[in-house]
Amino acid sequence: xKQEFIYHALAPRNSPVRPTRAHTAVATVAVKEYIAYLATLxxxxxxxxxxxxxxxxxxxxxxxxxxxxxxxxxxxIVATQPAKLAMLPAAKPFRAAN
Length: 98
Description:
This protein is mainly alpha-helical and 98 residues long. It has a domain at 22-75. The protein has helices at 22-67, 69-75. The chain is elongated, with a radius of gyration of 40 Å. The mean pLDDT is 75. Keywords: Membrane, Transmembrane, Transmembrane helix. The chain crosses the membrane at residues 34-55.
């Protein structure tokens, strides 16, 4: 069985098996990936710091509002005994106990 190998006209026929600067290219790619990794981590850390600072600011504002004197007085208004019960008809007034 006879096989013929056809090469592209622009491809060099005596190309080396491995390029001469392959180890340099691999090292360059590794350094680029490491720098990209550091940049991604730096951005993630910056976003986390901004998020925590914003949450702390909101928490401090909320605690400041709660700690002010008027906050609890407004939320704990105690109603007095009503003159009429809600389920009784309006014609029968509610009598307060002695």
